[in-house]
């Protein structure tokens, strides 16, 4: 295996393949060389070869060598974010040009869209905006073409596409708005609700769509467009029929963010006070049913969306959701989230809210538990960080 090969030999192998591919570029050569690179590059730092690998993909697009592109994507999964970022737009454009020529090669489309979602769409939002311009309408179209009634599940391509959209909208309001405003005979919300209505039992599709909808709900400009009866119905179905926090958390967060909208906005959308109370009660019952997790169930780049909910003068279950989430994140992922809380002033916000006396008792208890974890944290793998009532 590659782990047993001396580094110098691996380096010589990669150099030889690169030279070979420069001199010969037929499909057979591309396929063989890309396979060698896949095995030779595992465990190696190939950050400096990303421009060359991008050129290989661009050439493979011209010759429709889809397996070669797939192999190179596997190679690129070993490249760290900082090395991929400068080439993200180039790689994304080439890969989606290849998708346009792939017709019904479902495995290829699923694989490369998943790569884009896991490796490129998770980059800093400054890169995501450009990726969104290139891809969002094309990804939604891939979904539309596969929403065929009668199929048991949405299938791998739809799963990968929804995951891609979930990641490319995270902390990126411009991409959230692009999905809302995309016109494919319908807008992006129509496409997403169609996925859930067509495949109601597909848990992977539902989880990915709820993640995407939660991202949109965090954007104040896009959020009111989610006050659609179809969206609210699907969120409610998710909360009533799932017990897995990795699915229900995003649906609950979406409800929380929607309910902080003004009474005028809610009324204009037809969400009556009675409906608001019903959704608030549902949110509370779901959060009360969660156990404090031992592993992180979600990933945040910033905790600002949760602070927005804590400070909102709305129904108290919204604040309880936010306080529970901060406590759970600091409990399960202290090494990441306690420093984030300190850096973003979450601890100070919690103290101010507690001192103001505006929080209901359940929210107070969750907020104090979160503060206890933050105050007790002593650094990576601190046992005291886990000392919670």
Q: How many helices?
A: 21
Compute the average pLDDT: 89
The percent range for strand residues is under 5%
Anisotropy-based shape: globular
Main beta sheet: none
Structural class: mainly alpha
Give the SSE order as H and E letters: HHHHHHHHHHHHHHHHHHHHH
Cα(first) to Cα(last) distance is: 49 Å
Report on this model:
The protein is mainly alpha-helical and 389 residues long. The chain is 70% helix and 0% strand. It has helices at 7-23, 27-41, 50-63, 66-76, 81-84, 88-100, 106-120, 125-144, 156-169, 173-181, 188-198, 203-217, 229-241, 245-259, 263-268, 273-288, 304-311, 316-332, 334-344, 346-356, 361-376. It is globular and about 70 Å long.
Please describe the structure with a list of short key phrases separated by commas or semicolons.
single chain, 389 residues, mainly alpha, 21 helices, 70% helix, disordered C terminus
Short description:
The chain has helices at 7-23, 27-41, 50-63, 66-76, 81-84, 88-100, 106-120, 125-144, 156-169, 173-181, 188-198, 203-217, 229-241, 245-259, 263-268, 273-288, 304-311, 316-332, 334-344, 346-356, 361-376. The protein has 389 residues and is mostly helical.
What is the element layout, followed by pairings?
Elements: H1 7-23, H2 27-41, H3 50-63, H4 66-76, H5 81-84, H6 88-100, H7 106-120, H8 125-144, H9 156-169, H10 173-181, H11 188-198, H12 203-217, H13 229-241, H14 245-259, H15 263-268, H16 273-288, H17 304-311, H18 316-332, H19 334-344, H20 346-356, H21 361-376
Helix pairs in contact: 1-2, 2-4, 3-4, 3-6, 4-7, 6-7, 6-8, 7-9, 8-9, 8-10, 9-12, 12-14, 13-14, 14-16, 14-18, 16-18, 17-18, 17-20, 18-19, 18-21, 20-21
């Amino acid at each position: 295996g590659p782990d047993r090969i001396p580094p110098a030999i691996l380096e010589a192998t990669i150099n030889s393949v690169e030279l070979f591919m420069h001199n010969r570029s037929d499909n057979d050569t591309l396929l063989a060389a890309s396979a060698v690179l896949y095995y030779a590059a595992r465990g190696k730092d190939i950050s400096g070869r990303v421009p060359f690998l991008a050129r290989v993909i661009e050439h493979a697009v011209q010759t429709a060598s889809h397996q070669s592109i797939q192999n190179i994507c596997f190679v690129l999964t070993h490249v760290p974010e900082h090395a991929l970022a400068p080439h993200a737009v180039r790689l994304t454009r080439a890969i989606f040009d290849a998708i346009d020529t792939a017709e019904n090669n479902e495995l290829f489309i699923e694989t490369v869209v998943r790569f884009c979602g896991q490796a490129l769409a998770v980059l800093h939002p400054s890169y995501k905006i450009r990726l969104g311009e290139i891809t969002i309408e094309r990804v939604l179209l891939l979904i539309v073409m596969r929403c065929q009634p009668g199929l048991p599940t949405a299938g791998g391509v739809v799963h990968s596409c929804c995951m891609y959209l979930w990641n490319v909208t995270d902390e990126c309001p411009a991409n959230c708005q692009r999905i809302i405003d995309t016109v494919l005979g319908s807008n992006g919300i129509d496409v997403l609700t169609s996925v859930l209505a067509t495949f109601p039992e597909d848990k992977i599709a539902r989880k990915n769509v709820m993640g995407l909808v939660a991202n949109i709900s965090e954007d104040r400009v896009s959020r009111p467009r989610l006050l659609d009866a179809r969206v609210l119905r699907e969120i409610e179905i998710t909360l009533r029929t799932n017990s897995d926090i990795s699915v229900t958390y995003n649906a609950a967060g979406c409800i929380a963010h929607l309910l902080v909208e003004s009474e005028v906005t809610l009324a204009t959308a037809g969400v009556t006070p009675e409906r608001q109370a019903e959704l608030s009660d549902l949110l509370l019952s779901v959060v009360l049913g969660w156990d404090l997790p031992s592993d992180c169930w979600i990933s945040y780049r910033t905790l600002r969306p949760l602070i927005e909910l804590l400070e909102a003068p709305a129904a108290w279950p919204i604040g309880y959701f936010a306080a529970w989430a901060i406590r759970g994140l600091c409990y399960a992922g202290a090494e990441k989230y306690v420093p984030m809380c300190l850096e973003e002033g979450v601890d100070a916000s919690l103290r101010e809210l507690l001192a103001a006396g505006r929080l209901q008792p359940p929210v107070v208890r969750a907020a104090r538990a979160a503060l206890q974890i933050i105050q007790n944290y002593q650094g990576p793998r601190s046992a005291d960080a886990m000392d919670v009532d």
